[in-house]
Amino acid sequence: MADRDPSERAARRPAAGGGDLLAEARALLPEVIELRRAIHAEPELGLDLPRTREKIEAALAELDLELSTGGSTAQVSATLRGRSPGPTLLLRADMDALPMQEDTGLPFASREAGRMHACGHDAHVAMLVGAARLLERRRGELPGNVRFLFQPGEEGHGGARILIEEGLLERDPRPDAAFALHVDPTLAPGTVATRPGPILAAADVFSAEVRGRGGHASMPHHAADPIPVAAEVVLALQSLVTRRVDVFDPVVLSVTRVQAGTTYNVIPEGAQLLGTLRSVSERGRALAREGLDRVVRGVAAAHGLEGSVQLIPGYPVTVNDDAFAAFVLDVAAELLGPRRALTMRAPIMGAEDFSYILQRVPGAMAFLGVKPEGEGPPAPIHSNRMILDEEALAVGVAMHAAVTLRYLEAAKQGAAPGPAS
């Protein structure tokens, strides 16, 4: 069990919407953990997740919700209509796992070779199901609607973008705002952290090639060796970031693979670079993209070789609405105590396809601390040894519910957070 902060006592008082949401969420915790472990043991990848979808549908079957599936993905959407007409809040959880081998030794570890829930999506699904149970009991307190979205394909497949193209945000009831939680095993259990503005980066993939002329390694003057030029390109790209990019509009450019040659005595025809480009504004993104192309071509040309770049655009910057992020922190402070509501100083340079939803409706993503007990630094997300404090998932359930109750009530009073408030 994780250590408990004294401020947790403040979270036991009546929270948003009346009653003790944390107590209700903790009562649901055994079911939440059971579902999380069942999904964890059978991870699925990408957009087609039939077993995960079946588990979600079974967990929601007894609730009075309008369930919707279909389209080109394994998405599950459930609508809870409140006591009276009003605005609609979209709550989202991603469903898919990562293509990596698990090495946690947990009794419910992945039974699928080369697949693992190392980003906490199993926990996201289980918390959102728990929130659906809690909020369905409180239907009479809802002056509006809740849409629970279980979304596949976050890990590089752009599931959110696909669902939007298929009409996710146009169906009745149309969402007026959106909220999502993401677990973080490096944050103290039961803390909630977010920030206004950019919270996660845009992520692009690039491949570059330096083309020369092959030849014998003993006679490089008869060839045009691409390897030292490729090495020079790598160093020049680091100078691009440190000398051409505003430090307060950060960009991270990482070359993660350099590939060239076949044997020790042959100068190859070309050298290939692979990497990722992260940015937290569209201005910084455009500047880095243009600079990447200029450096590769320019350095290669300076040595009489040819350089080229292929860019694969990734997810855009995840931008929280300022007012909604402040609203989430207020809810967290009321629910958990002010010491557990944290304002992040800077964005995280990972990327999220929740960004596509936040481009279209106001809302926010927040991080939920699930740091496990133990000595030394915890394994982060995307680690083959990533584990989490399952008791902290009750806080996630309660946060979903508290944000929903507070948002719908504020919207009823004409004071909903977001640009239209």
Quick synopsis:
By secondary structure, the chain is of the alpha/beta class. The chain has two domains: 6-198 and 317-412, 3-Layer(aba) Sandwich (Aminopeptidase), CATH 3.40.630.10; 202-312, Alpha-Beta Plaits, CATH 3.30.70.360. The chain is 32% helix and 22% strand.
List the helices and strands and how they pair.
Elements: H1 21-41, H2 50-60, E1 66-69, E2 76-81, E3 88-94, H3 121-137, E4 145-151, H4 159-165, E5 177-184, E6 192-194, E7 197-200, E8 202-211, E9 215-216, H5 226-244, E10 251-260, E11 266-267, E12 270-279, H6 282-302, E13 306-312, E14 318-320, H7 322-336, E15 341-343, H8 354-358, E16 363-369, H9 393-412
Parallel strand pairs: 3-4, 3-5, 5-16, 6-15
Antiparallel strand pairs: 1-2, 2-4, 6-16, 7-14, 8-12, 8-13, 9-11, 10-12
Helix pairs in contact: 1-3, 1-9, 3-9, 5-6, 7-9
How would you describe this structure in keywords?
22% strand; 16 strands; 421 residues; disordered N terminus; Alpha-Beta Plaits; single chain; four-stranded antiparallel sheet; alpha/beta
Q: How would you explain this protein's 3D organization?
A:
The protein is an alpha/beta fold and 421 residues long. Helices cover 32% and strands 22% of the residues. It contains nine helices and 16 strands. The strands form four sheets. An eight-stranded mixed β-sheet has the order 1-2-4-3-5-16-6-15, with helices on both faces. A four-stranded antiparallel β-sheet has the order 10-12-8-13, with helices on one face. A hairpin with a 6-residue loop joins strand 1 (66-69) and strand 2 (76-81). The longest helix is centred in the N-terminal third of the chain and has 21 residues, at 21-41. The chain starts with 20 loop residues before the first helix and ends in a 9-residue tail after the last helix.
